Amino acid sequence: MSNSMPLRPPTRQGRPSDGRRAKGLRSRDALLSEAVQQASVDGLEGLTISSLAERLGTAKSSVHAAFGSKEALQIAAIRRAREMLIELVVAPALIVPAGVARLEALGESWFSYLESDVFEGGCLLCSASAEMDGRPGPARDAVAAVMQEWLQLLADSAAAGIGHGDVASGTMPDQVAFDLNSIGMAANWHHQLFGGQTAFPPARRAWADALARLRPDPSPRRRRSKP
């Protein structure tokens, strides 16, 4: 997992000084807000210059001017979904010390994000992971890169817990990341397929149980009595 970039909030940048460029960025931002919603319902492959223009009731030329191609639009939508993941899931958890406490915070913020239906069709990154896993290309690579960052964040948090002593020393951080990610992905699948909120109580219990198993054994080892 060491090849991924850190999933962290970006540093703030100044606003563009050129008025036309600033307006163009605002227009592109508005298009992306709709693009991620459409992709969550229709899939990344259903997100095209034409389909987004139709959804917005605007000219195809306007959408094409902002993105240039279907592939660029899809990748931009993935990057927007990444920004939303950072803002709504990662950033709130980063104020908590690394280790089990941060894993607890990441779980709660992730479940809150999933159950609040931020996207019309459910978490775009979750659905895109399944949609694109067998479709090699730049869009798949973009999805994989974001999910690799997410797994790395979970693994790094577990590794930090080992260093702090609140995670058992024999724990494999990559296994922790795999297990916890599986719980969240299953919760999103259940929520989207069956509706309602019934997915999240068992998902939260599963997450808590997984973290409980990470903690060192508090019971002291019994010394063997001398014969």
TrEMBL record:
Q: What ranges are recorded for DNA binding? A: 48-67
Cross-referenced Pfam families: TetR_C_13, TetR_N
Chain intervals with Basic and acidic residues compositional bias = 15-25
Region Disordered: start-end pairs: 1-25
Q: Which InterPro entries match?
A: Homeodomain-like_sf, HTH_TetR, Tet_transcr_reg_TetR-rel_C_sf, TetR_C
GO MF term set: DNA binding
Q: Which UniProt keywords apply?
A: DNA-binding, Transcription, Transcription regulation
HTH tetR-type domain spans which residues? Answer: 25-85
Q: Which domain of life is it from?
A: Bacteria
Spell out the protein name for this chain.
Answer: HTH tetR-type domain-containing protein
